[in-house]
Amino acid sequence: MSSKHLYVLTGVLALIGAAIFLYKALILNFPMLAADLVPVWRVEATLTFEARGRPVKLDFFIPASSPEMPVYEQSFVTRNYGFVTHSAGANRRAVFTISGAQGRQTLFFRTKARRLKEEFRPFPAPAPTRTPSGYTGAELQAANSIVELVRPRAADTESFVSLIIARLINAREGGEAFLLMGSSRSPRAKAVTAVRLLRHAGIPARMVNGVSLKEERRRAPLVYWLEAYIGSNWVPFDLDDANVGVEANRLPWWRGASRAVAAQGATNIQINFAVTREFDQALRSAVQHARQSSGRVVDFSLFSLPLQTQQVYKILLMVPLGIFFLVVLRNVVGVKAFGTFMPVLIAMAFRETLLLWGVALFTLIVGIGLAIRFYLEHLKLLLVPRLAVLVMVVVMVMMLLSVFTHQLGLDRGLSISLFPIVIMTMTIERMTIVWDERGAAEALKQAVGSLVIAAIAYAIMSNRYLEHLFYVFPELLLFVVGATLLLGRYKGFRLMELTRFKVLAVRKR
């Protein structure tokens, strides 16, 4: 394989990893830190009504997620009521039913919402069906008068909508806008009138009913704003100042002029919205948002696995990182060690034993095993039986150490069982061979090198920040793979060998 091919492969891996990482970090808002907390709002809707012993059916609007304000963890407290949820155009509804109820009834709906953007922006949607305004008689003349007065002053559709809203905000008693709003001067009446006027002017529009999340309130009123279909987008307008866009601290509950609840068999219906602020884990909030906005992304991620399996992969995903640093230490620095990946496997055991205990237990087991291995050498056993006996001895030594440390009240010694038995056996066997062939000094040097690499790998693999980062963004492993591929072509001096070749450099001068 040519160097060019390798560089292209590495670049492709890096681009794929960067694209997935940026999408999850910037679009799905996955957190960089495990301890990140984000402010969220818990909204509870309480429905109370009177039942007269007849079947009851309540059709209640519930909020849908939006790019600016995703909602999640929706739950219902319905006592003996059955309920189903379904989509109805731009809205979602929950239908509560019961065959018979008597007296005062109370139902609860709870949800969490998180603000992702500072204000609601235009969002694309298919062209809506034109709806007539329904004006007749004096109202028709008043609507025509307002439209004819505003149209010459508007530069475009957005300014026309703003001017229409401004006319309603500044409605004077006896004027056309005053007539169209009728006797009510409520925010809802203003929203309904603005929608009808815009439809009369040929601009599709709809009102939005929502809850303000500015402050905690036990009885939060509904707030209203308007959306006009301009170009191919629904553009929001504030009904308080006629500006384009509204603050994102408003949770859209439903769209349209319909009431929040349509009921059969119930009377005296009352709805109360309670708003409280709390903090939630950023990762959980991001995963919930991703399930709703990009469900397939989460379905093919670690977050779709059972929690126990996710915990396993939290550890396993750190192994490639430990192996990468092993490659650096061996191929670039020149640290010698036993086996290819033995230090990384030992480092995984150190995660439970902790570093000092792990080094002490590892040294003790290897030391005892080494002594027994030299004894077996005198018995002239064949390779396979010798290794089999050594495995058995290592198991018994680990068992005795666990019992002994437990009796001394040193419970950390119980974690010795996490050491990979076969790897320990092969380490002892390899150390014996090096001892015989190259001397005790070289064998001890490689043993110390193995512990150094294991300690460094442990420090990296037990880093909570890296663990979270690679668990949430496993695509970062593509960078690790690419860097390892590049190291595979490294043919320069190892750092620990510079002293060996220093004499040659001096002579060359």
| Helix content percent band | 40-55%
Low-confidence stretches: none
The largest sheet is:
5 strands, antiparallel
Strand content: 15-25%
Shape annotation: elongated
Strand order of the largest sheet: 3-6-1-14-9
Provide a count of the helices: 17
What does this structure look like?
It is elongated and about 115 Å long. Helix 10 (342-353) crosses helix 11 (355-378), helix 11 (355-378) packs across helix 12 and helix 11 packs across helix 13 (421-438). It has a five-stranded antiparallel sheet with strand order 3-6-1-14-9. A five-stranded antiparallel sheet has the order 7-11-10-8-12. Strands 4-5-2-13 form a four-stranded antiparallel sheet, with no helix packed on it. The mean pLDDT is 83. With 509 residues, it is α+β, with helices and mostly antiparallel strands. The chain has 17 helices and 14 strands. It has helices at residues 3-27, 137-150, 157-169, 176-181, 187-200, 282-293, 295-299, 307-316, 319-333, 342-353, 355-378, 383-407, 421-438, 440-461, 464-472, 477-487, 498-508; strands spanning 37-52, 56-62, 71-77, 82-88, 91-98, 102-113, 123-124, 205-212, 217-220, 222-230, 233-237, 250-255, 261-264, 266-281. Among the domains are: 123-257, Roll (C8orf32 fold); 312-472, no CATH class.
